[in-house]
Every structure is written in C-alpha cells, then in structure tokens.
Design brief:
globular
Length: 153
C-alpha cells in the first residue's frame, strides 16, 4: 500500500512539474535504438519500459521539459526501497511527436505495433505511454489507443 501511495503521489508531482515547465535533460543524454521513424530513442535504459510521446520541434518545443519530470519519476521509482518489480529497473523510450499529426501517429504506431523497427521488434514491451504533449496528436491517435491495448497517461 505504501508503495502504491508513493507512486500515486509521485505521479501528481510529475504532473505538477510539467505544468510548471521544469527543464533539464536532452536527447544528447540518451541512447539511440533502431527506430523505424528515426524519432525514438532510449532515454533511460531499464529492464521494463514505458514510452513517452514528447513534443520537440518548431510547433511546440517542450519535450525537454517533459524529460526532466520523467527522469525524476524514474529515479524515484527505481531507487525506492520496494523497487519497481522484482528489483527490475524502469526505463523510458522517448519518441518525438512534434505536435504534428502525421509524426504523432507514426511514433504511436512505433511504440505499439509489432512491425519492423518497432519498440517490440527492439525487444521492448511498452505497456504504458506518457503523452502525447499536444491535443492535436492526442485526437489523432484516439481511435488507435483501445485496439493497441496500452495505457495512455
């Protein structure tokens, strides 16, 4: 119960950071993986992964703000006394949704399908996705969420 409460409070903290515009890490701190779109990379290595659809680019370049909040949340989860799950580390695969409908749909598909150069093809089983950061992308992927069977936060 304590762990669930701590993670719930942590989630609220992450949302607060995002709304305040926290800044921090960058794509240069990450590890590339074999991305189909060229817009996804491993930000934080782990045993289990969540996906992130963060906006980088001209339309709304706030992805870097999302990174610091995600890093704080991952550190809290991975360093907690209870750990994540059986001592495993939680990792994060970030994809640039760019506040662009076409690119947002493409990276969502990369995170959720089993096609070539997808997260699954790279050995990552993404069960939850944080984002997307823009309502136009959220609307564009809305019909894909339920069939994909992923939790969108």
């Amino acid at each position: 119960m304590k762990s669930a409460l701590a993670h719930g409070v942590l989630g609220c903290f992450v949302v607060s950071l995002l709304s305040l515009g926290a800044t921090g890490c960058s794509e240069t701190d990450s590890t590339r993986y074999d991305s189909r779109t060229g817009e996804c990379w491993i930000f934080e290595p782990g045993d289990e992964y969540i996906g992130g659809m963060f906006p980088y680019g001209d339309a709304w370049n706030d992805g870097k703000n999302w990174e610091i909040a995600a890093k704080l949340a991952l550190d809290e989860i991975n360093q907690s006394a209870d750990g994540f799950k059986d001592g495993k580390q939680m990792g994060l695969l970030i994809c640039n949704s760019a506040c662009n409908i076409v690119q947002g749909v493409e990276v969502f598909d990369e995170l959720t399908d089993n096609g070539p150069k997808s997260a699954s093809a790279n050995g990552l089983n993404i069960q939850a996705i944080v984002g997307p950061g823009c309502s136009i992308v959220a609307e564009a992927i809305s019909s894909r969420v339920k069939p994909a069977g992923r939790l969108i936060i």
